Amino acid sequence: MISIIITAFKEPRTIGKAIEAFAKQKYPGSEIIVTAPDEETLNEARKLKKKYKNMVLVKDKGNGKSAAMNLAVKKAKGNILVFSDGDIHVSSDSLKNLIEQFSDEKIGAVSGRPISINKKDNKYGFWSYMLVDIAHRRRALAAIKGKRFFCSGYLFAIRKKLLPKLPEGLLSEDGYISHKVYSSGFKIGYAPKAEAYITYPDNFSDWIKQKKRSAGGYNQINKMIGVSMRSFTSESFGALGFLKYPGNLKETWWLIQLFIARVYLWIKIYIDINIKKKKREELWVRVESTK
CB of 111 within 8 A of CB of 142? Predict the structure, then answer.
């Protein structure tokens, strides 16, 4: 059996589309578990429960995504778990493309492919398009070469037996889970046709909030388990790969601004985590422009 777990928080406008994208695939032997702490989101999900009998709704306590995931996993009946978010939707054959890779017994988890649905004709849309494409290319190449890479938290599947209990306060559940998969002697597969369609930030304030949460999460994991998965230095070595994306002078200027923004981001992360010692609830800030 397959258990699809959608975690959400104050996403009544998008949760319906997120559920429908999975439910319409009618994958045999699947259930959909929706977890959220707020009634607005759960009420929208309840409207679809009459239509889709394989749905389970769970009200979590609002203690963060890792706590919500732990709670949903307790309810899950499947031996394969598929995780996604309430503010995105997935491609029509995403389940098939994720699950078929588990025929290889060495595969412990499978990552889907994030796709930006922002318009590319502005700076933040261009940034999102470029960054998700670079991430896709890196995952695809690593999968071909059998090298280590990490799942996207927007859409991934994992064998239930490999999923650890997640510490509360995690900023990067996907990074922590990916490390545990490799530590158990399994590999991570990549399913580029399992697409997750995402709205990315459209202003600098929200961009910093989102990136600080994700990049800061890897810094947090490094401190927790002593494994460096992402750093300013490692990102700098791949900077030359960015140069092929600009198609005109305007996009070249946007790329220069992105380099400056990334330097500012890593300085901000260092100060917040190492000097100000900020906690998860201070670093995890809701990004309104992506909802």
Answer: no
pTM of the model: 0.88
Structure tokens at 3: 């258990």
- CA atoms of 241 and 288, how far apart (whole Å): 30
Give burial (CB, 10 Å; 0-12/13-18/19+) of 107.
middle
Q: Which CATH number fits domain 88-290: 2.60.120, 1.25.40, 3.30.67, 3.90.550?
A: 3.90.550
Neighbours of 189 (CB within 10 A): 22
- Give the gyration radius of the chain's Cα atoms: 18
Domains of the chain, by residue range, sit at: 88-290
**Rounded Cα gap, residues 69 and 245, in angstroms:** 36
Q: With DSSP H G I counted as helix, E B as strand and the rest as coil, what are the percentages for the chain, rounded to 5?
A: 50, 20, 30
Q: In this structure, what token pair is assigned to residue 197?
A: 């369609």
Residue range 5-18, pLDDT digits in tens: 999 999 999 999 99
